[in-house]
Amino acid sequence: MNRPFVLALALAAGATLPLTAGEIHGKVTCKGVRDSSNAVVYVAAIPGKTFPAPAEHAKIDQLNLVFSPHVLPVLVGTTVDFLNSDAVLHNVFSPDACADKFNLGTWPKGQIKSYQFKKECVAATLLCKVHPEMEGFVVAVPTPYFAVTKADGSFKIADVPDGAYTVKVWHPKLKAAQKAVTVAGPTAADFEIAK
Description:
Structural class: mainly beta
Number of domains: 2
CATH class of the largest domain: Mainly Beta
Helix content: under 10%
Number of strands: 17
Shape: globular
Largest sheet: 4 strands, mixed
CATH topology of the largest domain: Immunoglobulin-like
Distance between the termini: 61 Å
Number of helices: 1
Strand content: over 45%
CATH architecture of the largest domain: Sandwich
């Protein structure tokens, strides 16, 4: 049996075609900083649509007195595991209300402590009371459609269903931006942000 005929039979029997998935790709030009990395590009909340939190935990390592990755976008509801890979004590806390000003305390090398980001938080600053020079960010967004820019500012958000969206950009040091984007297959969206 040929494929178009099987598809026609399935549709006649009441099956529905899957939504077409496109992508959003482009560049974020970051003015006034060393490079264009660490900008988070994401699709804003979609009216009437919610997304279940992933069962798999996201991870941030503390290695060489640095949060790695420096910027981590997650879907709201995601639990983030914080691993201490250094041979010194580390602490993780956030002063931000959107992350409930959490403080996980202090723990030694090889141990993990976790925190669930239960609400939208753009962004939770991560700090360490033991090492004040340490700083990182978790960006909890309302959809699973997000990406972090590379050093050249490029990004790609895969599997975005065709449709009209508001796409937002957040950066640790620059002003946020947003624009309306209509996705129809592979769709380009470029941004420029500055202080």
